[in-house]
Specification:
Helices cover 56% and strands 0% of the residues. It is mostly helical.
């Protein structure tokens, strides 16, 4: 949960007991829950208002796509992941027949190799 282990959660509970006391801790937890619920509802309403304002062509718009990491993952890496995971079926390719490379004469001792002035 939130990248916290059991030790950190236990430490947070002990600190909360010391700060709020055992009598006020349930009230503080209930108030924190209400606050988180209200924040989530406000965020969802803002997202829905944004979608309604943009029109029907942006019905699949997700504000999280504006994060550069999510943008790159969605638009560039999805195809690579599909290829890697085998979601797209690839047709087998027939192997070309083996043809050995021609044998090239080696240079003798003291011979100068050919020089192509246009290649350099």
């Amino acid at each position: 949960m939130f990248g916290l282990g059991w030790g950190e959660i236990a430490a947070l509970i002990v600190i909360a007991l010391l700060v709020f006391g055992p009598d006020k801790l349930p009230q503080a937890a209930a108030q924190a829950g209400r606050t988180l619920r209200n924040l989530r509802r406000m965020a969802n309403n803002a997202r829905d208002d944004l979608r309604a304002g943009l029109g029907p062509e942006f019905q699949n718009f997700d504000p999280a796509d504006l994060n550069p990491r999510n943008f790159v993952r969605k638009h560039l890496l999805d195809d690579i992941e599909e290829d890697w995971n085998g979601k797209k079926e690839l047709e087998p390719v027939a192997a070309a027949p083996y043809t050995p490379e021609p044998v090239v004469d080696e240079l003798g001792f003291g011979e100068i190799p050919p020089y192509d002035s246009e290649a350099t």
